[in-house]
Each structure stands twice: as structure tokens, then as C-alpha cells.
Amino acid sequence: CCASYSRNFPKHSYSSNQWRKGVGASRCHACVASGSGSYGGGGGGGQPAASSGSNRAAQTARRNNATRATFTNHALTHPFAEGGFRWVAKGTYIEGARVGEACVCKWFKSGHVVEASYFDLDIKAMDKAHELVKEWNSRKMINNLVKVNIPGVWTFDNLPFRPDFSCKKVLQEPFISNYQKFNSNTGWADNETPWPRVMQALSHFSYHVSSGQFVLCDLQGGVYDDAVVLTDPVILSRSKMYGVTDLGSQGISSFFSNHVCNEFCNYGAMWAKPADQRRYFRPQAGTSMVGR
Questions:
Q1: Contact (Cβ atoms closer than 8 angstroms) between residue 238 and residue 215
Q2: What φ, ψ does residue 8 adopt, rounded to 5°?
Q3: Any idea which of 38-42, 144-148, 185-189 has the lowest mean pLDDT?
Q4: DSSP 8-state secondary structure symbol assigned to residue 183
């Protein structure tokens, strides 16, 4: 039983040293990391975390807040990152509230999807992710906020020297530092440190709060002093309405086949789980896609 939470957690929620202290004295990873009874310990830099649920929910979205950006020819020719079906180039905002800040644009690799339709599905998935994370934040599961990068569909200028990007549409969003992957859409998860376990709990929570219709997963982003910022999440749905990364009911079952509830799950009540928890997909860190 964690001395700070007064809740029973499995052994993997404690360090070896804390586990040896026994009932009433041991403190779970989350409490040790935050120095308090809830993970995060405030807003960073000595500032308190947002207190009201509505205020926290309003801070969930991290938007471009800009109208124009620039990318070097080298950045476009040599993307600094890539996913299973997208390239990512780093640039700089030059107009708007974020002027001078780093940003990224993302475009789809040829042969994977039809761009015109896939932008709609990508934005649709981000809207659902934003809705689910807002609910998580409003319930104050942890002190720190979970934020979601909200991309915009931007269009490059007419570029005679780069005809491959001339008038090309891309997804545009703020740059994320300290990038890491927390879980995938096939049930793989990094359970070694507190933040990845928070993300596993968020995925479980998304199933519970949606009455078993969705699982927010493939969670990745950056950890900051006062928040974690997510980008490119996947929504698994019963009706497979979110594109090629939505593995449907079998994906939901596969998530739970590998999920072990931790100190961040079941806050306030036992969260729902599906009756079918069989594994239909091999857990892997990369994002998996299926044909529609």
C-alpha cells in the first residue's frame, strides 16, 4: 500500500528500496518522482498547477498560433524525422504569436495513402484525441497537464526552385522537444518510468470514459517541466472510422492483452475493460497499419 496514496499497487509500481519498506512506509514511483502524493508536483519552476477542471481542460490544446513559417531547402530535402508513413521537417514560425519558435511540417510518403482524404481522417483523429485528453485533464488525474498538438493544414507558396513542394499541403504544428514514444497501437508499451505509465493509464481511461468505444494510443511526444505534449496519436474505434492505423475492435483487445493496470489507473473507481482481451496483433513499438 503506497503511504502517500493509501492505495494498493502492484510490485512493479515501486523501486526495490521502497518495496522493502513495507506497508504504510513504501511510496510508489509516482510519489517519489513528484515529491508529493500525486505525480507531477505542480506547474514547474515553483508555479502551482492549474486548479479548476475547466481551466485545465482549456489548456489541453497546443496550437500553431501563427500564420506563416519558413523551411530551408536542406530541411525539406533531409527531413530530421519520419514515421511509418510521414516525413517531418523542422522550420521556424515567422508570423504570429509564435514568431521565432520552432515548428514542423509533415507530409505523407507516396504509396501509402491518398493525401486529400487522409488529411480529413488525421484531423478527425486529433479532434477525438483532444476531446479525450480534455476529459482526463478536467478530472485532475495528476497534477501535470497532458497537452495535444493540434495541427493545421497549411499550403506551401509557389516555389519554382522546389516544384515538389510548390503549393503542397502539409500538416503544420509546433515543434516538440525531448521526444519519446510511450505506447503503440498494437499493445506495446514502455512501462519502465512514471510518464509512460501515465500514458498507459490515459489509454485505459479513454476506453473507460468512452464506454468502450475508443482507445487513445500510439502516444508519443515530449516531457516538459509542467506537462507532456502529445502528437500523432491513434484512435482505435469499434467501427474503424479513423483510417489505416485504426485497428478496430481487435486493436482494442490487443491493447488490453498487454496492459497491466498501474498506480495511475482506476482513479476513483475500477475502470472498464473489454470482455475480449485476446492478442490479435504482435506488440511492436512502431505504428501498424491495416487495409480498409
A1: no
A2: -90, 125
A3: 38-42
A4: B
Q: Report the C-alpha gap between 253 and 246 in whole angstroms.
A: 12
pLDDT tens digits along 217-274:
999 999 999 999 999 999 999 999 998 899 999 999 999 999 999 999 998 789 999 9
Torsion of CA 82, 84, 87, 93, to 10 degrees: -80
- DSSP reduced 3-state for 143: coil
Report which of 264, 269, 265, 218 is spatially closest to residue 34, judged by C-alpha positions: 264
**Selection from 262, 209, 280, 291 nearest residue 39 by Cα:** 262
Amino acid 1: pLDDT: 54
Residue 4 in grid coordinates: 502517500
**What is each CA distance from 119 to 114, 124, 170, 217, in whole angstroms?**
9, 8, 9, 19
Tell me which residue of 230, 234, 235, 232 sits closest to 213, measured CA to CA: 235
Helix 194-209 and helix 248-258: axis angle, to 10°? 140
What average pLDDT is seen over the chain? 85
Instruction: State phi, psi for 149 to the nearest 5 degrees.
Output: -65, 125
Q: Which of 178, 154, 161 is nearest to 91 (CA)?
A: 154
Task: Report the predicted TM-score, pTM, of the whole model to 2 decimal places.
Answer: 0.81
Q: In sequence order, what E strands does the chain have?
A: 61-62, 66-70, 81-82, 86-96, 102-108, 145-149, 152-155, 169-174, 179-181, 214-217, 220-223, 227-230, 234-237
Q: Any bridge partners for residue 95, and if so which?
A: 68
Q: Decide if 139 contacts 267 (C-beta within 8 A).
A: yes
Task: Assess contact for 284 and 184: CB atoms under 8 A.
Answer: yes
pLDDT digits (tens, 9 = 90+) for 114-154: 456 668 888 999 999 999 999 999 999 999 999 999 999 99
Q: What is the DSSP string of 40-88?
A: T-SSSTTPPPP-SHHHHHHT-EE---EEEEE--HHHHHS-SEE-SSEEE
Residue count (the chain):
292
